[in-house]
Structures
1.
Amino acid sequence: MTHTPGLVVTGASGRMGQMLIRMIGENDKMRLVGAVERKGHPWVGQDIGTAMGGPALGVTVTDEAVDAFAKAQGIVDFTTPEATLEFAALAAQARAVHVIGTTGMTEEQIAALEPAARHAVIIRSGNMSLGVNLLAQLTRKIAEALDEDFDVEIVESHHHHKVDAPSGTALMFGEAAAAGRGVQLRDVADRGRDGITGARQKGHIGFSAIRGGDIVGEHDVMFLAPGERVILRHIATDRSVFARGALKAAIWGQGRAPGIYSMADVLGL
Ligand SMILES: NC(=O)C1=CN([C@@H]2O[C@H](COP(=O)(O)OP(=O)(O)OC[C@H]3O[C@@H](n4cnc5c(N)ncnc54)[C@H](O)[C@@H]3O)[C@@H](O)[C@H]2O)C=CC1
Ligand SMILES: O=C(O)C1=N[C@H](C(=O)O)C[C@H](O)C1
């Protein structure tokens, strides 16, 4: 009998789903026990390995998450907000660790994860990479140190398929800057300026989004004052940095008390 945690990947055919499946296959500390896709997806019923164009992996893509989750100790989920909410309830029933990478969730959708977190471990982050999580800590410290003469602007760039803006990472940086200043992001966020917007308000945190080509994910956190600028930059060139963090989280969560955790918890930051 094997004691390595069995993982289910949801959104298995997606950009992150396929990266996760490849990386689980290369890791002897975990096993792939399920691959879930949305109803009607052409991969449902096929072996996930062959659907991805490689050798068979012995795991058939299913649209029945409840059956797949019953065999799993961890669910790694990069899908959509609606699917993620559904999976949170099912993962809690199965007492499986639910790693959530999905972005674009509203405040209400995030709050709706709480009942599931009473029964199981949820680890959620808008960005699973070590570099971004380190930079979020730095953002908070810099925001604590600099006063409101420094305007905070966050600029993010992503591939042309991305459907949500600002990115989950940009919002993480915004939350970190707001926490450093002792304010709530929702009270100071400037999202989507257009037209005669009026002059910039002191203390606000601005967001801008670029979409194009195959950009994996790039973020600048800018502190802009008369006479000087401090700019923090993170550039992801490969999705493996997100997948590595998500898989680390799935292992870290095993045996933890139920609750909602972040990547800062996983990484001990
Ligand atoms: N937190 C992080 O570090 C990262 C988060 N993301 C986020 O992850 C999400 C997915 O990103 P990508 O893989 O680029 O998108 P994608 O569009 O390539 O993949 C999403 C997959 O989810 C599937 N899906 C949708 N509804 C489903 C359902 N009800 N059941 C099962 N599968 C379902 C889709 O068919 C698709 O294959 C996005 O929200 C993105 O912003 C992406 C990269 C890193
Ligand atoms: O959709 C993506 O691709 C990414 N999404 C995450 C986000 O919204 O910040 C993380 C990463 O930037 C890639």
Note: The chain has a mean pLDDT of 97.
2.
Amino acid sequence: MRVGRIPYINCYPVYGGVDRGLVPLDATLIDGVPTTLNRMMAQGALDVSVVSAVEYARDSERYLLLPELAISCDGPVRSVMLFSNVPAEELGGQRVLVSRSSMTSVHLLELLFEHVWKAAPEFVPGNAEADAVAAQASDDIAARLVIGDAALMLQSADHPVAQGHGRSYPYVYDLGAEWKRWTGLPFVFAVWVAQRNTPVEDSLKVHAALIRSRDWGLQHLDELSAQASRNTGVSLRECREYFAGLDWRLTMPDLEGLTEFLRRLELAGRVPKGKLAFLPSAQAGR
Ligand SMILES: C=C(O[C@@H]1C=C(C(=O)O)C=C[C@H]1O)C(=O)O
């Protein structure tokens, strides 16, 4: 089995037990930013992976959702941020760089511009991972959408990535908070999916291992925060707050936020009409 993993710290709580050998997983783990994993799943190069929520909706016939697993927030997410020189409402006609690593956040950003900020910027896909952010000192970009670890680093004024970037932004928008303000709902950025044509027993074994690993992770957020802080240079306090604001369980309210987001994307013609289909997990065992 080939299993995808995003190397951002927001995945530590799901893979932590597996990484430490506490939960056996008979699979090869393949790391990639969300859009890389989306593409690999779309091509059948992975059996099970975390993907952008929008990747599921883009081709829901192809996938089965893994129950009880997601990356969600109910309010501020802290790692999906629009950094802007001017208020978002004034970005019409200006260049907004959107992270090429992201699919969900780009769609959410576009919905917010259309319905909340009522402005039509020019979206420019670009590299917004930490190495690129650290180097991008000067360009004609009025705002940039940054996700994952790089977004956390850019918000820490004394972090080398923020220092290297050399620019500060007077207007910073947290997309989890903006969605919550708009709809009152949690937001699901990422889901785990299996290929429909991978044997169900094999996907179930991976699912059961990821659930056990995630359960370990939820019990050890302090240890994982310390690891996240060491690996990113983001302070322990910020990593703790970050993990406290995320959830990985796909609760009922999360599902409501997910379906509301996908409903709005369907209405806008951004994803095909689809349905939710879950891997039948009754036998997964704990
Ligand atoms: C909260 C986050 O969620 C992510 C955002 C994704 C997207 O925008 O497509 C996909 C996976 C998650 O890693 C983040 O990376 O900051």
Note: Residues 6, 8, 10, 34, 52, 71, 77, 79-80, 102-105, 147-148, 189-190 surround ISJ (CB under 6 Å).
